[in-house]
């Protein structure tokens, strides 16, 4: 079933190509939308059919390009069923575009530039200006030309699309490929033909890598797990009677240079496709590179014994990328975040405890450093065991969370490299550019339209209080369904803005006009939507999640000023349409006699006005959803001649529901509520959204109190004694283990000057203590700090000297939560607690 889903996804996007020689840059071709289209923009050449070859399938692991005197050379490394394979596509011509009205100025410049020429094309810009193709032998020539033209006010369009990206996107290739033709040179397949193969999923060879170091990042050991050769390389001479562990090899290395050389040889022997780890690029690989550099020996972890091509993030200081030829590097933290996992802390210890129910065998950071130092000096086999167990934990987390499957499905869905997380704009471009070209358009450059604010999702004013029987209806993928229904699309907007007759156009909320006939994005979303429905039916959760994330990212991409298709009119046509829909849905529901007490972007919360059984509430919600969908279908067909893809569905029944006020006022809050939900089988669960219970920056004391009080109120159980006893226990010191704040330091410590929050004060005390203890300072560049409030202010756990300030916890942590719940019930914290009265 999963194969058929991916096959259908590819067939919806597939286009066949024939070689027409270098002079043919664009020709008529059947497009994915049924409209006349074009072949790939860039010139490509197929190998001669006389060359003996056979089709192969592969999964793209890494991609790269370089300029050569003959043209751009593209390199792809594939994972195949028979092992890794390198593809080289040589002498590639690179292409950009310029509006034809600038021909004279561009030709004058090109007369001095060899190997760059203009060609006539049947394409136009979003301004409806005909464009010329600018074909360059070397890709970097396009960048140089763009920078020369910029002061003249002449944009060179799509000059930033790199050769290896354009080659894949113009052929609708994401990750899987079929290979045919070509010739073999030096173990590489050269100038072959690549076509999509969305069904191909190889078994990837994975190694988990972890290192241990001193507190000053001096390398002690390297562990490698996941393949047949499980090993730990340990710095030092073997003892006279070495003890060899049972389930892995412990290899002693006299020098750090020998460790690096041994690591290089291990990679050459075992040849993994994927390296996984925990903060593996920013710490493990970075330390290994620094160690190799210090030792004067190369670190050669890429295929063909090639080095890591380190790059820094242009907008994130200190953040590193570690591309290496032929191997993907997947960090567990980034993979979990990309798959929308959420944890209070993404430390390996915390994630292991939450997902696996077990963790590491050493405590906090400085206990860990001291114990690692002790084991290195006194018990190297124990350090080796600790090192390789971290590798095991990472592999088990990847298996439990299906992270490798998710990464592979995401690559197949987005067209991005296996280890490239984030990149929503790049994924959008990968899907959109080739389809836009086939409709006769080239893309604008980033920044052509200056950013101005556009509205976000509609958040309704809430009606605070306690309620019985509240049901929630939720629009399924609201923004993608708006794109499909109202044909919101960059090309459609360009067509609508310049249409001679507006009668058949679709009018957006701000008067924006869209074409009914010429568009790309609605078809892309439809294809992804149907593929996700198939994936859900097949219970392929990694594929379903990948499809959902990329589909739902499109609206955000169109609203990002970093996107070449950014246009405030475009994103407003989505978000404001969402506003209209939520308001119209509220009116529909209230005409039925129910009350909408809250709404947020794509959901409405409906009070059924009286207590309903679970079965009655489910039936009412299902009927409302059915009738709303029918109403949209009829209204849009009759009033705008549009097919509705809007679908609202029943989400949750809350037997009890609480919407608080904004603290210190009578106004209902937004994005903050709690409820006792009941599923179809009658199973109840407490749900918290935005309240202190769901926020990690409040203490466990506050979260536990809120959970205990709300659950008692919802269940109709006595709660007054609970409030009194909880306050008394806190004052008596019986809840000291719940008093710890855990907060993030988002900037360097020296960046806090005027307003210094408590967590920064605690971090400064902690690092003063670290210096006193002759340990590295831990918090100078940010991170997480745990501290308590004392009578002398905030103090870190590791350096607390003062008594606890219990009054702070009572008045700042317990009382605000108590009054938010008690005041709607006609009571308050002060009247229930003698301890509170004594304080004042």
UniProtKB/TrEMBL annotation:
Stretches of the chain forming a coiled coil according to its record: none
Catalysis: reaction(s): DNA(n) + a 2'-deoxyribonucleoside 5'-triphosphate = DNA(n+1) + diphosphate
Keyword Repressor: no
EC number(s) per entry: 2.7.7.7
NCBIfam families per record: PRK05762.1-2 (NF004421), PRK05762.1-4 (NF004422)
Family, similarity comment: Belongs to the DNA polymerase type-B family.
Full protein name: DNA polymerase
